[in-house]
Amino acid sequence: MIRKLKAVIALFILAAVVYGGWLVYPHANKNVHHPADKLVAKTTDDFRVIRVVDGDTIVVAIDHAPHTIRLIGINTPETVKPNSPVECFGPEASKRTKELLTDKIVRLEADPSQDNEDKYHRELRFVFLGNENVNESLVRDGYAHEYTYKHPYAYQTEFRADQKVAKKNKLGLWGACP
User: Fold this and answer.
1) What is the 3-state secondary structure (H, E, C) of the chain?
2) Which of 48, 96, 122, 140 is catalytic?
3) In CATH terms, is domain 29-176 a member of 3.50.50.60?
C-alpha cells in the first residue's frame, strides 16, 4: 500500500513539474523573451549562445528556443557544409569562434541594409561580446574573409581595412592557406 502511495505521489510530482515547466516556458508568443534566455543579459537584445556551428554561424536562445545566426560581413572556411571538404583554416576558425562565444551573453544587431534571413533561414546579425564586434575581430585576426553578399553593410569599410592589415601581416588563414 505504501509503495502504491509513493508511486502515485511521484507521478503527481512529475506531472506537476512537467505541466509547470510548460507554463513557465511560453512557446506561442515569439515576441516575449524568456528570462532564462538572457541569464545576466542587460537588455532584451542580449542572448545566450547555446552552440557554435562553425566560424560564422552560431545558435542563440531567443524566446527559450534556438535561433541560428549567420554573422554579417564575414565568411570563414567551411567545416560542416554538406558535400564539401573541410577547407584550409576552417577548424581553426571554428575553434576561435567557439573560444569567443560558447555559453556567452551576446548582443545581436541587425542591419537594415541586409535581409533579415539568408536562403538557409539563418538570421543575419552582427554579434557583439561586450563592446567588441565579434564579426570584425574574426576578420581582423585572420579567421574570416570580409564578405559582402548583395549590398554594402554597416561596418564594411572597417572590415575591409581589417582584412587588408591581416592579409599584409599574414595573420591566420592569410599565412596558413595557399
Assistant:
1) CHHHHHHHHHHHHHHHHHHHHHHHCCCCCCCCCCHHHHCCCCCCCEEEEEEEEECCEEEEEECCEEEEEEECCEECCCCCCCCCCCCCCHHHHHHHHHHHHCCCEEEEECCCCCCCECCCCCEEEEEEECCEEHHHHHHHCCCCEECCCCCCCCCHHHHHHHHHHHHHCCCCHHHHCC
2) 122
3) no
